[in-house]
Amino acid sequence: MNTIAAVLQSFAQHLSRVSFELLGLAVLLHLSNLMLRATAWRAILTAAVPGQRVRWRSVTGAYLAGAGMNGILPARGGDVAKVVLVNRSVPGASCAVVASGLLVETLLDAVVGGGLLAWAVWSGAVPTRLLEVRPPGGSGVVVVIASALMGAVVIAAGRARGHATRLAHKLRQGVAILESPRAYLRLVALPQALGWVFRVASMYCFLHAFHVGGGLNHAALALVAGSVTSVMPLTPGGLGTQQALLM
């Protein structure tokens, strides 16, 4: 009982030091980023299913729900929820169309996240040994697994060519906005770029709200950790992976 009381007392002391003004601002910036990303995804879906009404409220609700579920489910289970929810609310948007549209939504993230990771490695903030991790058994294991998967795909495609053709058509439908680079830059890349600004600002406010301190470079480093856990979503919300990277 004494141990529990001590833990609760320590928690209360740390909580009393939190800057709730900065915490509120951080949450507001974070939500603004999610809204911008949902807006970009809606533009992708609108181009994928022309003639259908794609409600901003439905897409945003699905995006927020999925983002919240990603915080508690491993392997980015929230992304599956996004696809299912939008599939039910947008006529003509099959799961394949929605999923490929969600992939388009990550293109800018790959560029920005890759750039931040390169900066972190170049500046020495991320130990290069983390990039030298090898799977058990060496690269030969990777080759064997990749070959087996490729063989399975070829066999499955041979058995269901008609289904594969329809699936390919739906996947192309989901990335239709890429056929108009100007529309992609204006409706997708621009709000996402602004969202990245909000993400850095939000992380900066979070760090200072909890008196961790640091500058914008530290906020960017924290986002690098988040990007790595997005690539390797082994735990809910990247729990543990982010802490190991930032130590």
Q: State the secondary-structure class.
A: mainly alpha
Question: Strand portion, in percent?
Answer: under 5%
- Helix percentage: over 70%
Mean pLDDT: 77
* Major sheet attributes: none
Count of alpha/pi helices: 11
How much is the radius of gyration in Å? 21 Å
Could you give the distance between the termini?
A: 32 Å
Shape: globular
> How many β-strand stretches?
0
Low-confidence residue ranges: 133-144, 240-246
| Tally of individual domains | 1
The topology string of helices and strands comes to HHHHHHHHHHH
What does this structure look like?
This protein has 247 residues and is an all-alpha fold. It has one domain. Helices cover 74% and strands 0% of the residues. The protein has 11 helices and no strands. The chain has helices spanning 2-16, 20-48, 56-70, 77-89, 95-104, 107-122, 139-159, 161-174, 181-209, 216-231, 241-246. It starts with a helix and ends with a helix. The relative contact order is 0.14.
Give the structure's gist in a few sentences.
The chain has 247 residues and is mainly alpha-helical. The chain has 11 helices and no strands.
